[in-house]
Amino acid sequence: MKEIRLTADCQGERIDRFLSENLEDLSRSYIQKLLKEGSILVNGQCVKANYKISEEDDITVRIPDPEVPDILSEDIPLSILYEDEDILVVDKPKGMVVHPAPGHYSHTLVNAVLFHCKGHLSGINGVLRPGIVHRIDMDTTGSLLICKTDRAHQILAEDLKEHAITRRYHAVVHGNLKEDTGTVSAPIGRNPADRKKMSTKAPNGRHAVTHYKVLERFGDYTYIECELETGRTHQIRVHMTSIGHPILGDAVYGPAKCPFKLQGQTLHAKILGFHHPVTGEYMEFDAPLPEYFVALLERLRMRRR
């Protein structure tokens, strides 16, 4: 059982709303479930979801340990960019979830990597995310780093935290960007109105920076490269939307209707660079653009002519 202690810093707000705004990983519906079960106490007493907090209320949230299912290895083909006894770099396809989660306990990248590595993966992130140093969205393609040993994982996780890993993405966005290069520096946090989305307007947003440059212009669309300085959830998608240029095909942050037949956002993790956790050698990998992306660029070039 995990226990979280908070002290209320406002007056008159419903406790379920207050907690959903302050505990990013818990949905409001899950918080209401905990309230019904008596797992949330205010000043030592059980309360209902409509309880209105008072400033300085002492709040205790008791979260039961999750039931973790067995994660099975699956013989799923992998596109491997590099592999040695410490690390693995793969080119993730579109439509594949990186690690198991409710609703996706099979056919994930982790299931495939467990089979390929015969279970020899870093255990730092537990049984659901063995070896996973960083993630990309289900419909984002491209390079992803996996660690086979705890030592490699610890070193590379620290490099990621210190912004010492190069991550450059290619994307096609709506509209014609005014400048050839630019930087979006805006905090990102959970959207309080929709917990499945992130926002630059969230009250408890975390520092986030994305650098971009134009690669090619198509009038109504622009082909760009984005380099991450930080790595927040949906960072590029949220940042580009915040400046009026959502990623083409992004049904969550962009227009509902897409003029092209796409499966999610046109976003590809192309360049991944880091120092090897054992040798210290700088290594950089270039995941080739997937076929759908190449075909889209050709179509946009034809339209431009």
UniProtKB/TrEMBL annotation:
Matches recorded under InterPro entries: PsdUridine_synth_cat_dom_sf, PsdUridine_synth_RluC/D, PsdUridine_synth_RsuA/RluA, RluA_PseudoU_synthase, S4_RNA-bd, S4_RNA-bd_sf
Biological process (GO), any one: enzyme-directed rRNA pseudouridine synthesis
Molecular function GO terms recorded: RNA binding; rRNA pseudouridine synthase activity
Keywords annotated in UniProt: Isomerase, RNA-binding
PROSITE patterns cross-referenced by the UniProt entry: S4 (PS50889)
Catalytic function, reaction form: a uridine in RNA = a pseudouridine in RNA
CDD domains named among the record's database cross-references: PseudoU_synth_RluA_like (cd02869), S4 (cd00165)
Residue stretches making up the RNA-binding S4 domain: 13-77
Keyword Amino-acid biosynthesis attributed: no
EC number(s) per entry: 5.4.99.-
A Pfam match: S4
SMART domains in UniProt: S4 (SM00363)
Role according to the record: Responsible for synthesis of pseudouridine from uracil.
Similarity annotation: Belongs to the pseudouridine synthase RluA family.
Name of this protein: Pseudouridine synthase
Organism, as annotated: Candidatus Mediterraneibacter pullicola
